[in-house]
Each structure stands twice: as C-alpha cells, then as structure tokens.
Amino acid sequence: MSNTHNSGLSQRGSLWQRLLMLPIRHLQQAVGSLGDLWRTPFTSVMTVFVLGISLALPATLHLFVKNAQHVSEQWDSSSQITLFLKLSTSEKSAKNLVNRIRLYNEVSEVHYISAEQALKEFKMLSGFGQSLEYLDKNPLPATVLVTPTQRSSKAQAANELLEKLLNEREVEQGKLDVEWLTRLEAMARLIEDIVLGVALLLCLSVVLIVGNTIRLAILNQKDAIAVMKLVGATDSFIQRPFLYAGIWYGIFGGILSCLCVALLAQYLESAITELTELYHSSFELQGLAFNEVMLLIAFAVTLGLLGSYLSVSQHIKAIEPNAD
C-alpha cells in the first residue's frame, strides 16, 4: 500500500518537474536559435533587411492613407450648403427658417446673411459701389450658410440634406459642390485597395523568404538532425529552434520596418511643412501610433512564424537517419 502511495507521489512530482522545466527548455531553445542567427550574420542580416523593407512599404502607404483621411475629414467639416432665399421672404420669416434649420440633426452650424448685408459686402468686394447706388431695390437675396455635421458631410449625406432643405418654402435655390467630395472619396477608396493588394503580395513574399531561409538552415544541419532523431529526439523538439528563428526574424524585421517608416515620415515632414506654408496653412504629418507599431511588429512575427512553420513541417519530417 505504501509502495503504491510513494509511486503516485513520485509520478506527480515528476509531472510537476516536467511542467516547470518546459518554459526553461523553450527559453534555452529561443536563446540558442538567436545564437544560431548570430553565427550566420550575413544571411540573418539580409533576411531581416528584406523582411523589414518589405513590410515598410505597405506600412508607409498606410501612413499616407491615414493622413489623407485626416485631411479629408478636415475638408468635409468645412463643406457648406448655400441657400438663397426668395426675394419676397421677410426678415421675420428668414429668422424663423434659420431657427428651424438649427433643429436639424444633420446640421452643425447655421449662419444667416441678410439681403442688406449681402449688398454691402458686394459693394466692398466688387468695386461697383457707386454704380449700385442707382438701383431702385436690392437685387440680392438673403442667404443662409448651413454647415453639416461631420457624419453628414459625406457626398451622399450632404446631397440628401440639400434635398431636405430645398423643401423649405422660403428657399428659392440651394448650392452644394459635392463633385470634389465624390472624387476625393473615390480616390481614397482606390488608394486603400492598392495598399491592401500591395500588402498581400509583400506579406506572401515575406513568408516565402523566411521559409526559404529556414529551409537552407535545415539543410545545413541535415546530418545533426538525423543524429538527433537517431538518439530519440522528437520532431517537435527539433522544430522549436527553427520556429524561434522565424520569430526572431519577425521581431527584428518588424522593428526595422518601424524605423524605416519613422525616418521616411520625418524626411517628408519638412517638405510637407514647406508646401503648406506656401498656402498659408498648417499640417502636421501623423506618424505611426504606439498600438500601430506594436501591431506591425506582431504581424511581422506572425509572418516569420508562419514561414518557418511551413518550412520545418515539410523538411524536418523528410530527414530520416540512415539504417546503417
């Protein structure tokens, strides 16, 4: 009875020891795989550079799309609908119309320009001030400038708001230039599709590059792998260092791609600043946020691990020790 109890305790103890040693073995193999990369510096550095530059291109395109969307949002928010009121509209009716428009959920701001104010501004800007004094009555209508909310600034939503405003009885005519908004949104969608297509192609190339590098490393250690299998090593034990090598490639390649994007953004920021100063405006180029940097590195690690896994799952199983 005591022997059975002791054997049960020893089994639980050995299981507990194996669980404790598992992360230690993984750490040893991870550090060992990093040492293997250090022993082949030329191959490792070239692979990291190819991986980093391949990921830097779609990341840079994403950065441009991100900044373009930021500029687009600023333009959208500044879009306005101009409503020209009927000449017969009284000042009281015009003020009532302005109050009704302010209640629209799609409207952010409403600015009213009376007919007298419009004529005064026209006299100042046109240079025909003295000639206009001979007019019997004011030919200019009262105007209402409507600024949509950010959600309603898109081309389709702004057009729907214009149709709704034209139904007001005091409104004679409305004007909204949505053609440039439609073109801008179409260009943004085209750029996003291009970024997605380029990213997919480059990600595939990263997987193939890492997989080929790991394949060459496996072939270089073919005899050592055969000996390890001969003494009883499992395929999973042999595969781990190569999988960790793919992870290291992903980490270093992801960091390099982040540095490339940051340097390129810093280089372009001065040129963009000079360009915006010519138009008396200010624009600050937005770089990659911290979560985007972490996501890029994690994505690079995933691609490196995928490439190494596809390579080791195919080539290590094919290596068998000789029967001799």
From TrEMBL:
SUBUNIT field: Forms a membrane-associated complex with FtsE.
Keyword vocabulary terms for this entry: Cell cycle, Cell division, Cell inner membrane, Cell membrane, Membrane, Transmembrane, Transmembrane helix
UniProt-annotated location(s): Cell inner membrane
Membrane topology term: Multi-pass membrane protein
InterPro entries per UniProt: ABC3_permease_C (IPR003838), FtsX (IPR004513), FtsX_ECD (IPR040690), FtsX_proteobact-type (IPR047590)
Entry superkingdom: Bacteria
Protein name (Swiss-Prot/TrEMBL): Cell division protein FtsX
Function as written in the Swiss-Prot or TrEMBL entry: Part of the ABC transporter FtsEX involved in cellular division.
Domain ABC3 transporter permease C-terminal: 198-314
Lineage: Bacteria, Pseudomonadati, Pseudomonadota, Gammaproteobacteria, Alteromonadales
All copies of domain FtsX extracellular, residue ranges: 80-161
Leader peptide range in chain numbering: none
UniProt record similarity statement: Belongs to the ABC-4 integral membrane protein family. FtsX subfamily.
Pfam family membership, one: FtsX_ECD
Transmembrane segments: 42-65, 194-218, 247-268, 289-310
Organism: Colwellia asteriadis
